[in-house]
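Quick question, first post here. What does this chain look like in 3D?
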Amino acid sequence: MDNLIKKINKLEEWTAGITLLGLAILTFFETMLRYTVSYSFSWFQELANYMIIFTTYLCASIGVKYGTHFSMEALTEYMPDRISHALKTLAYLISGLAVLLFIYYGIMHIQSVIKFGVKSPAMQMPMYIPYISIPLFSLTMSFRFFALSWKHFRRFLRNEPYEKVRKKEAR
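> Answer (accepted):
Ran it through. Tokens below.
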């Protein structure tokens, strides 16, 4: 199971890297064409927008995995270990529940786009395709928040020490 999770994580990170690289190359060529020959393809900007949506939600999910989202650590740093774990449990639980709203409303939006048959103006692509990444990566994001909440809850029950962010004072 761990091997499968490692492969999925690697695929996720490579996909994010390749998508960001593709976005940079696409934007560079669009800018170069616009300023050198005064011409731009109408679908360049549209594709770039869809790539940004995809990358934003994918990288937000990866950010939960690495703990790179902003957080307020003042309370957890100075509270006893059990209270720190309880606060982290609650914070991650609330975050996971909030992301579940992204999933719900993302699915509702996709259903309405499918119902009305909306297509993108330049590429004539069904609009539900670029928006699939919102509920998909929100699902992985909420799973990771709930896993972190569960981890801190177990540590709370076992009365394990809380890993402080601040460094110990030099002696």
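The helical segments are 2-36, 42-66, 74-78, 81-116, 128-131, 133-158.
The chain has one domain: 2-158.
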